[in-house]
Amino acid sequence: MHFYNFDWNNAAALGTCSHCFHDAATDEGGRTITTSGFYFHNATVPRRIRYQTPYSAIFHDLDGTLTELGANSWATFYKRSHVWENECFYTDAEEEIFNGVVCNDNVEVRTLKFSTYTPSGLFDGMGLKVLQYDDSIIGGMNETELEEYIVNRDNYGSFNWKKKNSKNWAKPFVTGHKYKISWGVVGLDFEKMNFEVAQPYLASD
Hints:
The protein is mainly β. It contains three helices and 15 strands. It starts with a strand and ends in an 8-residue tail after the last strand. 30% of the residues are buried.
């Protein structure tokens, strides 16, 4: 598929979640779209992807023609927790072209769904906070440094609460890493919470 002449207004060759212009939209997102065989005329297609509410779509680039990072690369909306050295990248250039992060084949990007929580009213409207928590990041920290790292909200990816579809969060995660998950500004304790992992697309996933 060839793309030309998407250089007007803020147009992009690919868009996600048609007509999901409001947070009250029923679509929870988190779907994976596979792509291959793309050609972009760079002079007239400055923007390849633009995400819309709920900003959680995942592109799996089978041959590298979307991301230019080779076969089995990935793209998804930018969150701080998605950026990993030598794996997932985000710069001003990636934001302009891809409206988010792009990842090479060292990782995968998969959806995790958090839903059906109790107590039911406590979590309403609360953002899902995701902190990178690999041993390579926190292993060398003393107690004070770890506490400072945890309380610094600039270190978190923050995902909006979804009003409909069982009041849930269905969001992309970069695989092969550890994360600290919390809800709200200071973290909320839940009595019950369902956690669901997206089904593998291929047997080798």
